[in-house]
Amino acid sequence: MHISEGVLSVPVLVSGAILSAGGVFYGLKKMDNENVPKAALLTAAFFVAALVHVPLGPSSVHLTLNGILGLVLGWMVFPSVFVALFLQALLFQFGGFTTIGVNTLIMASPGLIVYYLLRGYIKSKNFYVVFTSGLIAGFLSILLSTLLLSLSLAISAPEHLGIAKVIMLSHVPVMFTEGIISAFCITFIKKVKPEIFEICQDSVL
Amino acid sequence: MHLEIFSEGNSLLHKVDPRIKLVTFIPIVFIIATTKDLITCTLALAVAGIFVAIAKLNIRKIAERIVMVNLFILLLWLFIPFSYTGHEIARIGALSISKEGVYSTTLITFKANAIFIFTITMLGTSRVFSLAHALLHLKVPVKLVYMFFFCYRYITLLHEEYERLIRAALIRGFKPKTNIHTYKTYAYLAGMLIVRSYERAERIYKAMLCRGFTGKFPIMIHFQLKNLDYMFVFSMMAVIIMLIMSEILLYT
What we know:
Largest sheet of chain B: 2 strands, antiparallel
Number of helices of chain A: 8
Order of helices and strands of chain B: HHHHEEHHHHH
Strand content of chain B: under 5%
Largest interface: A-B, 72 and 82 residues
Radius of gyration of chain B: 23 Å
Distance between the termini of chain A: 30 Å
Mean pLDDT of chain A: 90
Largest sheet of chain A: 2 strands, antiparallel
Strand order of the largest sheet of chain A: 1-2
CATH architecture of chain A: Orthogonal Bundle
Structural class of chain B: mainly alpha
Number of strands of chain A: 2
Number of strands of chain B: 2
Helix content of chain B: over 70%
Number of domains of chain A: 1
Oligomer: heterodimer
Number of domains of chain B: 2
Low-confidence stretches of chain B: none
Structural class of chain A: mainly alpha
């Protein structure tokens, strides 16, 4: 989910860039040397997951999984998303370099919000609690990302309101598929490698 | 998965120092993204076209990318021309197409294409690893560059892992449909990918420690500016000045 070049207004681009830069630097501060390869390889895994197309009715959607990325990486989700978007812009020309700040914000901040909301529940031993938090993580991250995306389109020019609404509506089914997939994915990781959710161990606020 | 499809070549643009490319790329795309003038955009697009010729890139591969980028732009053409209020130039049923709407959508199209072609011809013609090296010289945080480096290094590998997993599923009769079973399968595939990436990261870090990693990679090869790089800087400065001038003179 990203906005292409040339669509957004300068104030939106600049404020997105400043906010994202703050997030990226704070995330890097929280990342010790040991976590650099982990964050990088998880980013690569999510980059690959974004190439996976899941059937949805007559069409298909690609996985985003930024909810899980946020739950695993906490603040480090900002540098991670930034790197992934940088590579996408460089290698596939998806999104772009001038919109990278806004797009990082759109993808990373829902992950961070999900992290603060659910990090306590994800540690639970109860299958249903973990499953439900996965469901919420997937659903909420797409919902918030789409909201932010539509908002940045609409703020840039009131004429974009129509297309922003269409993007919102068309992502409603995606929220559900993403929720279901995130839920199963998280319960799987909890079973196979629960340490993954201990990568960022900062004290609870 | 072959990712750097434009980095192989022997043209002048392939030879320019990646540090210089990054430093000149930023102002160029910034000007294009912020301009409100169609002629400035057209000029930028023309320069981008010249760059394609200089870089001697495979036209078919570029054309494929252009089509992909413009699919999204096509979506904008379905909405934005109708949503501006202004001089009506055509009418489809109850919808009126305004001059302002068409102008602004054309502007977006030109901007997106110009920036996209500059990305391919300037950054795409360097290897990702040499760009990472250049980013270090440009004082980008070390950890961010290392993340970039590792991430790029392992994308292809993880993609192969994914293909092995999905092939194994398909051999066992997995047919993707819109149902819970399909979603569960994809979720477990993604989960497996995450688990493997985590385990691999642990091994990588141990291997780095074994080789005496203390937080920095030693760099063995160094960049050196050549005459070509100075020439490139001057011509890019000329392009930047031209774009700024046209923006000031034409957009009033």
